[in-house]
Structure prediction request, 672 residues.
Amino acid sequence: MSLVVQLLACAGAVGVVAILVHGDMTRTTVAASTAAVATVVVALLGAQGLWETGKRHVDVGKEQRNYPPAQLHAGGATAIGVNGGFVDFALAQIRPDDSFYILPKNDTVQQWLGFLALPRLAATRREDASVLVFYDTTPRREGFHAGQLTSVKTYQPKFSVARVAHRRAG
Amino acid sequence: MRTFVAPILLAGVFSFAGLGVLHALRPFGRSPLHLLAALGLAYLVGVSVLGLIVIALLVAGVTPTLLTFTMVTLAVGVAGGLIGLRTAGRHPTAAPPPMLRADRIAIIAVAVLFGLFSIAALTQYTSAPMWNWDSWAIFGSKGLALLSFGALDERFFAGTPYTFIHQDYPLLIPVVEMLHYRAIGRADTQSVHVQFWFMLVAFPWALGYLASRTGRAIVWAPIALGAVAAPAIVTVMIGGLADVPVAIWVACGVLAMGIWVESGRRADLAVATILLAGAASIKNEGILAAAIALIVAAMVLVPERPRLRLRQLGIAATAFIIAILPWQVWAAGHGVPKDVKLGDALSPAYMVGHADRIPPTITELLRQLTDENRWSYFLPLALVAGIVAIVVRHARRAAAFYLLTAVGAFSALVWAYWTSPYPVDWYLTTSGFRVVGIVAGVSMAALVHLSGRLASLGSLGAAAPDGEVQPAEEPAKLQASDEPALTRHEGAPADLLAFWRT
Prediction:
């Protein structure tokens, strides 16, 4: 419906301009009025938009230049509701030749950690991983028992990273 | 220091290659001002050509180091320059159209206004964190992976844990990001946004250069400014998504194609093909838009059966397919999952079974396109300009091309949502506002082109490409000075446009 209204408004504006400026609605006056309406409407909206957007760019740019490096990670994690502190902690435990797997399956964490961990890659199956990342769970809850994992490092309760005993990397 | 200088050098490299290509297609004159005028288009052409070559190299297993990239750039730029020098005597050089004082004032005003804006915006583009979800999850991840692995590592680009990166998306934006990282010597996900700033700056520049042959600057310059200033372009670009770049490439590619449809000059078709191949290498919507533009161009030419032009279009379509083929072959060969399953999407039974997805899709996509706070009335104005052009019988073939391309692009989007496996409401909410950019891009191209042509019919006589300003009642026609026999008839396809003649 809004497209019909906008089309009628644009066509009406062309007609009004043709009559007011040229005094009639001939082939040439309608053509010229169409060009004039398009140019004026788009240019005015554009100029207004540029001014507002330009001011915003300057303000936000000033603010962003002062972000400490830690806030860059934290901001991205916060935006998607991920425990950014733990993800950074987990990244520090994953070696260049490791492959990691997140338990339980969590697409959002998988994406954020997968992005930040590059070039370290995620494993397709947990059996293939050298490092397991326990996000909002515990190794025991995921069915692991002592001896299956080595060097379990806990960031906070229910957030830990562990190496798989039989696939020690490096 | 390197973070400051290297992106400028990279943009210069893209522009150098693009100028070489443009010079080979239609030699420039000796005016430095003309080279400057062509710089925006040259940048977009350079990104397309070099990006496509780098993608082909990656598929072939070649790591695109800075040395490799420099050699490719030199090869493209120098070869283009030499071809241009050799053909300069045989073909008329591309000369800037003459301008009246009002036109110069319009260009200077738009350049100053947009220049000031660009400088102000640069502060954010150099420091923006990569926080937009799709930006880091899709394009940022791929750019970093290309930098890290130096190759298309199938554990990432086709691996199950990484399906979230939309593995089937083409690679032009990640390639540009990877080149940025290589140029500055580190993976800096903040400064990489500068590459999007260059694209933003090149957009109105390229639109204006292409449109300069269609009418007077006093008409096209403000519209080119309005196009880049549309909130959905200028406020979204900083996010580092591919939706705005694909709209930019579609707009410029479709404009070049529209000019070719009207003028028949081969150089325009070549530029259109390069830009549309670039669009098709940015996002899958770009493939749809490019294919539709090529098909519609044939449709509006077929009724007059100009065999030479249809043959040229066939060659262009073949070149387009060859250009985008490497990545598509690699993706198919490695079982990369697609967002749209063609088997379902073309199955009548599946389509009928999911027909209830059509009404909400049409409603939402139209709502997005007619949101004046995003697209500044480009769609309704372009539709009115197209209809008026057909009714007053001026630039009808170009008008038919734009109208049918816009309808085709919109229909293709509806088809994509209709046959997608994702829940339609969720899918529309999360992507509808972005994907309509290809239809908006077609609208922008239509408005820039047709407004100039319509104005030439009225009191604003158009500056013709070869020098003279046409009298008001004798509309300027784009001259195909190198293929004069192709451009004499301007009629629109009779069966398609009969309605408007009644």
